[in-house]
């Protein structure tokens, strides 16, 4: 994106969390709008994050690198991983380089989208996420719905947590924090230091989030959108191998569509579906219905 006061820049998406040295190389040759290697190393190092949370009084799951005695109560993750595909239940898993064990926290997955300016995190909004389990990826990302309402006192608490961590790591631009809402309150899980999967459901034509991202990355003042309804996005996956993907008249509420003739294996993404509604609950029902109807075009009726 370029403009009178917004120079063209590189905006990095998912996948670079495990390659901070590559981020450093990119930044040496191009203008980087977002977090550099140092910030990514700090916020995506599971041990440093756990230590920071302990020091700052932020509820965070127990971490260990060796095999726990009660693996049924733990998950195993890849340091710097993203998207949920790398997460497994720890039962039957052995310690491996780059993998760590985190105590399982039961509850609902909540994400807080925010814009950092290196010192403070400015909350954009909250969303509820759900998984689309696969045999080899039980925590694979499924979708998210923007929450129209959120408790103001709890939002202030979470905002304080992410601001403290933003200050520690020097985070800039769009980021998201993953949390679990359980019976005893919220537990902070991790921060994704880049624009994430929920970007589209929070975007607004009057206050574009990419503009806020670019401005925050260069220390400029930015605007945040306001919402009066709910919106959801959902990734659809191929349930079985598809030798020749059919030609489909894609509805306007889809994006990232597979091309006709493509060969897919089970688990490959097919498209992203969007829906808007008056509440999070009704919007989630609507998008799942839309996705089910759309999937009939490449899967057929399997009932």
Automatic annotation (TrEMBL):
**ATP-grasp domain: residues covered:** 170-218
Q: What Gene Ontology molecular-function terms does this entry list? A: ATP binding; metal ion binding
User: What keyword terms does UniProt attach to this protein?
Assistant: ATP-binding, Nucleotide-binding
Q: Where are the transmembrane segments?
A: none
Please give the organism: Mesorhizobium ciceri
Q: Which InterPro entries would you find in this protein's record?
A: ATP-grasp, ATP-grasp_PylC-type
Task: State what protein this is by name.
Answer: ATP-grasp domain-containing protein
């Amino acid at each position: 994106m370029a403009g009178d006061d917004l120079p063209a820049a590189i905006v990095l998406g998912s996948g670079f969390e495990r390659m901070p040295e590559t981020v450093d190389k990119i930044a040496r040759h191009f203008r980087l709008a977002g977090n550099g290697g140092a910030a990514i190393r700090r916020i995506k190092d599971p041990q440093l994050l756990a230590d920071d949370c302990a020091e700052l009084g932020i509820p965070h799951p127990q971490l260990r690198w060796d095999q726990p005695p009660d693996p049924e109560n733990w998950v195993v993750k890849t340091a710097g991983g993203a998207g949920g595909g790398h997460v497994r239940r720890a039962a039957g898993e052995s310690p491996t380089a780059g993998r760590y064990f985190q105590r399982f926290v039961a509850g609902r997955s909540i994400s807080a989208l925010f814009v950092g300016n290196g010192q403070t995190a400015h909350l954009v909004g909250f969303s509820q996420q759900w998984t689309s389990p696969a045999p080899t990826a039980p925590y694979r990302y499924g979708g998210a719905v923007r929450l129209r309402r959120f408790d103001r006192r709890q939002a202030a608490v979470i905002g304080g947590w992410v601001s403290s961590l933003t200050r520690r790591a020097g985070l800039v631009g769009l980021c998201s924090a993953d949390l679990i809402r359980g019976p005893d309150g919220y537990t902070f899980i991790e921060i994704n230091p880049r624009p994430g999967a929920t970007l589209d459901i929070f975007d607004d034509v009057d206050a574009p989030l990419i503009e806020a991202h670019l401005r925050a990355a260069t220390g400029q003042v930015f605007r945040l959108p306001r919402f009066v309804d709910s919106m959801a996005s959902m990734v659809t996956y191929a349930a079985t191998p598809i030798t020749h993907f059919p030609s489909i008249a894609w509805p306007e509420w889809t994006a990232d569509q597979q091309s006709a003739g493509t060969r897919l294996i089970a688990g490959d993404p097919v498209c992203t579906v969007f829906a808007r509604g008056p509440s999070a609950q009704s919007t989630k029902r609507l998008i799942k219905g839309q996705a089910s109807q759309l999937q009939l075009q490449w899967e057929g009726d399997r009932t």
